[in-house]
UniProtKB/TrEMBL annotation:
Residues passing through the membrane, by range: none
Naturally occurring in which organism (per UniProt): Mycolicibacterium rutilum
PANTHER family from the UniProt entry: SUCCINATE--HYDROXYMETHYLGLUTARATE COA-TRANSFERASE
Name of the molecule in the record: Crotonobetainyl-CoA:carnitine CoA-transferase CaiB
Region feature (Disordered): 326-381
Domain of life where this protein originates: Bacteria
Gene3D superfamilies: Crotonobetainyl-coa:carnitine coa-transferase, domain 1 (3.40.50.10540), formyl-coa transferase, domain 3 (3.30.1540.10)
Amino acid sequence: MPALDDYTIVDLSSGIAGAYCTKLLADGGATVIKVESPQGDPLRSWSASGAPVEPDGDGALFSFLACSKHSVVVDSGSTDDLDMLRGLLAAADAAVWSHGSAVAELDEFGPAAIADAYDHLTVTSITPFGLDGPWADKPATEFTTQAWSGGVIGLGRGAQDRAPLFVAGQIGEYLAGAYAAVATLALPAGLVDLSMLETQILCLTYYSVPFFDALGRPFRDRRRLTIPGVASAADGLVALGCGTAQQWFDLCAMVGHDEWIDEASDLSITEQANIHAEQIYEWVRENRVEDILDLSSAFRIPNAPVGNGATVTSFEQFVERGTFVSNPRDGFTQPGPPYRTSPPLLRSADPTPRLGEHTETYRSRHSIPGRRSGDATARNAISGGLPVDGIRVLDMTSFWAGPSCTHVLAMLGAEVIHVESTARPDGTRLIAGVPITEEQWWERSPIFTGLNTGKKSVTLDIRSERGVELLRELITTCDVIVENYTPRLLEQIGLDFEGVQRLRPDAIILRMPGFGLDGPWRDKPAFAYVIEDCSGITWLTGHPDQNPVEPYSVGDPNAGVHGLTALLLALEHRRKTGEGVRIEAAMVDAALNVAAEQVVEYSAHGTLLQRQGNRGPAAAPQNLYRTGELDEFGRPDDWVAIAVATDEQWAGLVAALGDPTWVTPELASADGRRRHHDLIDARLGEWCATRTGDQIVETLWAAGVPVAKVMQPHRVGDLPQLAHRGFYERVNHPVNPAARHSTVPMRMSSVSAPLHRAPAPLLGEHNREVLSGLGLSDDEIDELESQGIIGSAPAGLTIRTTKTG
């Protein structure tokens, strides 16, 4: 049976975030009852490409997101309909809520009111800034919350001679939806208040606030193109990247310039690559895509073809693995679920419901079929004190994707044992640019501390027979094993799923390979940017007259939150059956799901979505505009984001501008504004150029217009909304100064602060505690240390701390 076959969710949301949340839950077997107005969810008529949607049909994106759900029409003015909704809530397990429908705006059916009236429900609210705080009622779009998050300018996206670039494709909506699914599964009855802003900080910036607090400098102080990134080869686009110093050195060798290698350079990888950009691009232009991919794989340099809605379905990896499937109602192509499990915990997708298709079924019973109102009891997928209290997790991950998954578990109560080795510490310990002349330099990385608070660190050299023996013993004590090694490593030491099950039959193993456990790309090096490149996320990001620009941020944390969703499904299955589960949560499968709109639009309508710079399909005008201020580094690089999503917001903007004469009646409609976007951009640019960012925000927010300052990411910790909600907690550290660390993107009535109950561990800090728990004596542990099987400092490591910033 699917993991959530006895779980019922009432979906009171509108838009992508709630729809994606409940899609993930429906995939897991939950009965999702989508409550719609008589006019239907606005997504039913949505098409990013502008393709017409038939009056009795639905947009392709809606049809993808609504598979396996039920549709119930509730008229906010009908007493009978509202009684039906009350009955549904009384018998459900959870509700998902967002603004956007007449019913959701009724006081009785606001999230806090539902949580109070139905105290058995987990009620997950999705809003731009959260339900309370000084910004709770401020107008916003996904585009403006990206700007507030620091995610637009934070990782240096775009060249300095143009505006910085947001990550296109409404990516923040999907990320919020994925976190909402995690919250709905993990948290017990009560109110879950999820903020899209906080989600984007976690997924579009790289722990910039603790980095600045601990080291006194920003992660990056200027925008630079990632070289080579996406480049033009002799016969098309190809993507190459360097995430470590070693990969940069290998790239130098591959393009025939060993003389560029300077292990003592004070410049970051990005800075060095920019110096040699033209020669690197020239080498790429002289070679074919297929040859570059083959050669870079031989050099172990991350690489990928650049996918889009028209091409990604034909890539050999996805064809061989059957990654794409047909929509069960409308027949277009869509990605399958973002993870695979054994035994199967997901349902086969059922057709998307027509508007109100299930209304009479539920009206006749006034409840969930098979239940009576009041039958539901408080429950969640895990249960216990804290959501995952009592769960022991063996964390065999590094860098960002895997640790971001296990970090949420640690904050929500699990005991997480982070396995490293002295020869190969977690890579995030080494990329902060801290000189090796500093004492305990490997403990200074704020990126590592940001991802690993509350965990324990054990060092084991699994190249040794004794190290593998100890790892096996440790597995017998753990409920969950999470790993993101290359697929062949666990198989070589006999710790694939079958090997783990022999040690502990009820263990859950979550494997997070880049491209999957099989297929021709299974051993390809996988970093976030190549996952973004081949999935289509990169394709939409950038200016239309230039090559795409890698987001360089989404692939890892997106994989982490999807892996966590799958893990919660597996824990629910084990709670019911006692069985262990193998999860394969390939990073690329998670990326393909959040980029699905490109494939479904092309398959359904033959329209290839294209880059639009900072414009987008959901608002017009939508763009970045330079202010009259210099940025904090003294450069003319200070921007605001403005997005007008409705005609009412346009009227507010016009009034705030003083009803200028250039505003014609044609601009009162979204179509008219799109046709004259260049004119509007020019006039808004002139208006903003004479004002500060604060003045622009104050003026436009007062007029009901979504607007944001384009924040430097190390400054977002000072935003009053985040301070009010306690998103950052100050954490002490035995080596670093105290720093503000991000928590989870939701406030939870059932979980109290602080979520960071201990600082990130020092390397091998818990060796003695954990190994003595396996029965080893002090003398045996001392002997392991003398043999180099365990330790507390890097050893036998070619130390290259070239900065990645």
